[in-house]
């Protein structure tokens, strides 16, 4: 199974329409891959808070339309990164889109853990409340977004729901890049799952992005890692390796905490 992670550069001087067209061409160029993944909020920039209201779009808005055509042209499963979604309730959400090789929207995920503490995304956007797994290209993907990476209980829930590959779409700042790499490997090791973590390059509203997208196997070994600039990582994954790892080192079977407590006799 071949996966392509598109570490697109987001810079303040490029319009969203131009970036959508450029991202579409990058996706089309991945024909031959099975799965393509884009970063978080790449149409606007994860730290461009002042632009969120103007950039908000419906689920099947301009980003979906461009990505739908690109997925269909490339014949790939596409995690199209996330957009600023304007929900039916009028609220904004940080929402990831998952499209099948026909370009159809098959699932979406609203980011559960919003970053910013008492500002930015944390106060401007609503929080999702549902985990998402999607069977795609021979793997069951657990879909997460950026700041989610710091909350291991979310990933354990995805593994319990059947995930064997954990996808992290991010706009991670360069000043915390060491955390990005460390946490991506930790989530892979503790869940004995692939981790496909794709970040933006460039600058969002003056904030330098980390880049360094990374693919980690179920043993915690780094299969591929990008540099700081725009780049496409292409990596071959063996779906059978997840089951093999869990059988050879069955740590997940020894879990105690977090499981339902049996009633006393």
Can you tell me about this structure?
By secondary structure, this protein is α/β, with parallel strands linked by helices. The protein has one domain: 4-Layer Sandwich (Nitrilase/N-carbamoyl-D-aminoacid amidohydrolase). 25% of the residues lie in helices and 29% in strands. The strands form 3 sheets. It has a 6-stranded mixed beta sheet with strand order 6-5-4-3-1-15. Strands 7-8-9-10-13-14 form a 6-stranded mixed beta sheet, covered by helices on one side. Helix 1 packs parallel to helix 3. It is globular. The N and C termini lie far apart (48 Å). The model has no long low-confidence stretch (mean pLDDT 96).
- Class per helix and strand makeup: alpha/beta
Determine Rg (CA atoms, Å). Answer: 18 Å
User: What's the total number of strands?
Assistant: 15
Describe the oligomeric state of these chains in a short phrase. single chain
Which stretches are poorly predicted, pLDDT < 50 over at least 5 residues?
A: none
- Helix percent reads 25-40%
The gross shape turns out to be globular
CATH superfamily: Carbon-nitrogen hydrolase
How do the strands line up in the largest sheet?
A: 6-5-4-3-1-15
Order of helices and strands: EEHEHHEEEHEEHEHEEEEEEH
Q: What's the story with the biggest beta sheet?
A: 6 strands, mixed
Q: Kindly estimate the percentage of residues that lie in beta strands according to DSSP.
A: 25-35%
CATH topology: Nitrilase/N-carbamoyl-D-aminoacid amidohydrolase
Q: How many H/I helices?
A: 7
Number of domains: 1
Distance from first to last alpha carbon: 48 Å
